[in-house]
Structures are given as structure tokens and as C-alpha cells.
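Inputs:
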Amino acid sequence: MTRKATLWLVLAASLAVALALAVLIGETAFSPALYAAAFTDPRSGPAEVLWAVRAPRAVCAALVGAALGLAGAVMQGLLRNPLADPGVLGVSAAAALGAAMAIVLGGTVVPGLVELSALAGAGVAGGLLILAAGALRAPEALILFGVALSSFAGAATALIFNLSPSPIATAEVMSWLLGSVQNRSWIDVAWVAPAVLVAAAFAALATPGLRMLTLGEEGAAASGLPMARLRAFALIAAAVATGAAVAVSGVIGFVGLAAPHLVRAVVRGDPGRVLAPSALAGALMLVVADLLARLTPTDQELKLGVFTALVGAPLFALIAWRAAREWRL
Amino acid sequence: MSLLALDKVSARLDGRRVLDAVDLTVAAGEVVALCGPNGAGKSSAIRAAAGLLRLDEGRARLGGEDIARLTHRARAERVAYLPQERRIAWNLPAIEVAALGAPFLASDQALAAAGTALEEVSAGHLADRGVAAMSGGERARVLLARALVAPAPLLLADEPVAGLDPDAQRLVLERLRARAGAGRGVLVSLHDLTLAAAFADRVAVLDDGRVVADARPVEALSPEVLRAVFGLDGRWVEGPDGPLLAARRAQ
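Outputs:
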């Protein structure tokens, strides 16, 4: 069996096990009799807990993780930088700003409006990045543009906190910014799944361009591939995936950074072949992280975004340190 | 018909004129060396020939067709480009880097062509090794293989021997010479004038964006040109493998 096939098998099997555990294990311990009821009587209370509470939450975590893992892999390939992630280019911050504006303006009363606002924020950021990518060929320049975009969106979100007349709305925005898949339903799953598929389709279209960018801008530009179009496809994939993830779960950092690193060595660095395994690794990471966040004995459940940041920030430092020592950035 | 014809080409970069009414041709079977001091416009001329530089005036033609009217793919089918940049972003195996030279072939065909090209540059043993741990010379050979994989009739190489040891320099230039021997055209920028004289059929000397000489190597690099363009007092002497430049800084 090839290394790639083994990787797929291990990731898929691990994700299946993690999803099963996320459905079966929770704060409320079940006796064998309750498990039996959950599996035999769909209308029973235990079945409700497993299939209407835990299962959609776990699937939601998997989809959000897949979206973030995919977005991270696309951005790292696009920018030829192992430290790129959906947060770097400001897409996450712009999506969060969109959600915050909708919440403060009372959008929570209209189903789906906050999610659509988050997606719109990501779309605006993606559009600006596509324009910037046309003018700024150097990846470092695009990263700096993204940092500026992220800072501006962060400042605008802070301004919303500052000016918000309602402490309830402020608390809701804060809750959104911390990131969570708590209380997500099958409706949320049905909402996010198509967006992830659209992002995956654009990422697949961008794959030859990401691979060719391995040679640098000049080499890629002379390769014969329509690089401007492929670069736009990559940015659309990253923006849709990040927007969908933020829309359904709020801001969850570091998954997009870490997932590609977990699988890159196995696919021998290929920025095209890293995409799908990164999505699977991201899904696995977030399902496990959400399970651990749920099972950590605290008075208030740990927010998923906080949990991933606590684990992810040291990982970011480690990757930066290794990259600086082993591979020129 | 020339594989490449730059016709009165002028271009600017950041407001500075880098090419000034440049005329240059490359025919099939010919190696043309671009020589000149740093900043003379060698890389700009190569980038113009690759269609990567916006021209203010003049026309660049590949196989008789205006490069500005060619699609990306049609351009790549006419010209392969080996940039000066040797950084490879990810730690891909050498054979996969070389296969990037043939993006329109099926994967197995591209890998087969890449394997042949790596053998051609004496790098077949590196095929499965990641490029991150390779020396500069090894990486240069892998990238040359990437350019050789492309089936285009014209190859543009921007300082392909910069930073390489003498053996690697000769290996690279021998492969470019062999490429021309197979009926293709090569335009290569070089700083080493002796190597240019040894491997090129013609030398075009650029100075401040203008072509100041374009002839057989020893004629193009005449004592007058050596002094005016390179600031050298020099002359050509016959060596065992061709002309050698004996020169010192002009007083």
C-alpha cells in the first residue's frame, strides 16, 4: 500500500472512531440500558441525546475542521509559506466582523442572518484579496495586505464592542468570537456542508496552480497555466471554507495552520496532494478537540476556539522555530 | 523564421528604462548568450522574451507570432523558461519538481519525461530525494531538468550557472549546447565571458538596456566593447578548447 493510501486509511479510520466516540461519550454517563434504548427506540430520551444533540455537534465539528484544514492548506500553497492560515489573510477576522455587525444590529431574530453576514464578511475579504493578488505578485506583500485586513477587521469588531448599547449583544458577539459548536443542529450541518463542498471544488480546480507555485512566481507565470484564474480559485476556496466555518462555529484558530503540517511529510510536500488529507486531519482534530473540551471538568464548558488556541499557539511557535532552522521561509 | 525575435523592444521597471529599442533574434539550432554588466538588462530581455514583461514599445515574437496575442498555453508551447530564482517552496522529490516542466502531459508521461531529463543532467540518482536538503548545484541541475522536460522549441535560461562550481557550470552549458544541437534554440544570460565564447554561437552584449554588439563571440566581445561596457583591458587568446579571455581592469 502506498504512503498516500495508508495516510487516507489512517485518517478516515481515526475520524470514524473519533465521531463514534463523540456521539457515545458525553457529560452525561449512559448505562448499557440507556445505550440500548438510544439504538433501539428513536423516540427515547437517550436517542434524542445521541442523535439530535451529540451527533450533529460532532458532524458540525468535523465539517468546520475540514473547512479550516482545507483553507489552511490552500493558503499555505498559495503563499508558499508554512505559517499561513485562514487567520493570516484576514478572512476569519472579516467573517467575525460580519457576524458581530449582524448580532449588534439585531440580526439574531432572523434565522440564518448572522451566518450569512459572516459569509458575506469572508466574501468581501476574499474579493479584496483577489484584487490585491492581481496587483501584488509577491506572496510576502499579500501576507502583509492580509495582516492589515485582519487588523482593520479586528479594530472594527472592537469598535462594535465599544459602541454597542446592549450588554446582551456584546456578550453574544464575545461568545461568537470565542468559537464553539455547542448546540449545533442538523440544520447547521445542512447549511455548512454544501459550502464546504463548493470550497473543495474550487480548491480542486486550483490544484495545478498551487503545485506550479512551488517554483515561484516567475516559474509559475511562464508555465502556461492561467495563474491569475487559478490564484482566484484558490482564494475563493479559502474564503468560502473559512466563511462557512466562522458562520457556523465562530472563530476557531490554528486548525488551518496545524492540519497541513500533520500530513505534509507523508505527501512529500506536494501542495496539491496535501489538500484532501489536510481537510481530513482538520476534521479529526476538531472532533477530538471538541470532545476533550466537553469532557474537561469545568463549571462552564470550555469554548472550542479557546481550547484550540491554547494548544495551537505553542504549536505555531514550534512550527515557526522548526521552519526557521530547517527550511527557508 | 526565428524562434524568437525582439523587435525594437523598450520597457521600464519602476520608472527606469531597462530595455531600450532592443533587437534580438534566436534561430533554431543556435545558442545565443546575453552578456553585460549587472543591471544591463539581461534578465529583462529574457523576461520580455518569456512574455513576463510589459513592453512600452516594440514587439516580441515567438515563431513569428506576437507574444502578446498568444494564450498562456500557446506561449508555454513555444518557450521554456529557467528563471534565476532557484528557491523551491516545498520539499518535493526531484522527479516531481522536474515533472512540473510538463504540466499539460498526463502524470505518468510527465514523470517519465522528468526521469529522462534528470538522467540527461546527470541527476538520475537524485530522482527520489527531496530538494530541501540538496546543494545549490544539485538543485540547479534539477531545475534545468525541469526546463528540459518542456517540449518547447526555445529555451530561455537566466544565469543558469551563477553560483555553480566549474564542473557544474560546464555540465549545464553542455546540456544547453546539446539542446541546440537537437535543433532547438537557446537564449542564455552569462557573466562568464570565456564560457559565453566557448558555448555560444553568438553573443549579444547589452549595456544600459541597449544592444551594443551582436555577433560571433570573439567579434562581439572585441577589445573596444570589453573596455567600453565591462571596463576591461582584454584580448582573446587561443586555449586548448577555444578562445580564452585574458583581461584586467582598465586603467
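Remarks. Chain B has nine helices and twelve strands. Residues 117 and 184 of chain B are 15 Å apart (CA to CA).
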